[in-house]
Each structure stands twice: as C-alpha cells, then as structure tokens.
Amino acid sequence: MNIALCAAFLEEDVWESRLLEAASLHKVEITECNSARALLPLLELKPFSLLAVVLNGVTGLEVVRELREKVPDMPILWISDEDYSLFGYQYRVTYFLRRPVSGIELREAVTACLRLSEKSEEEMKK
User: Fold this and answer.
1) Which tens digit of pLDDT belongs to each residue from 34-93?
2) Which helix (H) or strand (E) holds 31?
3) What pLDDT digit, counting tens, does each position of 104-123 carry?
4) Structurally, what CATH architecture does the domain formed by 2-125 represent?
5) Are 36 and 63 in contact (CB under 8 A)?
6) Residue 31 β-bridge partners
7) What is the pTM of this model?
8) Taking the domains of the chain in order of start, what are their residue ranges?
9) How far apart are CA 45 and CA 8, in angstroms?
C-alpha cells in the first residue's frame, strides 16, 4: 500500500515515522512532498491508498480542496492546528485530526483509511 504524505517543510520525516508506526499492521511505502504542486503529478504516476495532509491553516485547506478535485474517491487524512473539521466535511475528508495528535488517534485514523481503501480495491476487482 502506498501513502502520499504532504507535510510542512522539515516535518516530513517526523510524520513519515509516525505514519509508519501507525500503519505497522500494513506493509506501506510513503512518498513525501510539501505542497500540492509536488503531490498532484505523483497521483498520475502511481496508485495511492491514502493521502495524508499534515498542513496547518489555509495551506492545508487549499491542498485538501485541490486533492479532492483531482481524486474524488481516495481516502484523505487531514491533520491541522486549527479546527477545520467543517471544511473537512465539505470536502469529504475521511478523517480530520486536530493537533496535537496522539499515537492512538493516528493509528485509528490510518487503520480506518487503509481499510476503506482495501475495501474499495476489492470492490473494483469484482
């Protein structure tokens, strides 16, 4: 399973290790970037099971909006420092978490998103 991680510059490594730990029950590969401009072309190169957006404020909102337009059915995990949960609902974000995020919260969100992705993949095979 592939996870695309869009995180703020200098936070990518921290969030990559946290996501790997949270997804420990799944074999995952993480592709990092720090902007929608860098992430959008990657969506055409390989399939992803989850898009994790760890960007604060309006920056995160814009990335989520652009991603949802590009991939309407892919699970998105959005982590922000402010309560953007209403926007998360508007853009059909699979999981919204507000910082600080505990390891348990992150594990539950990642597991739920990956299960949803697996279910979608199984349905497409039928």
Assistant:
1) 888 899 999 999 999 999 999 999 999 999 999 999 999 999 999 999 999 999 999 999
2) strand 29-33
3) 999 999 999 999 988 887 77
4) 3-Layer(aba) Sandwich (3.40)
5) yes
6) 4
7) 0.94
8) 2-125
9) 22
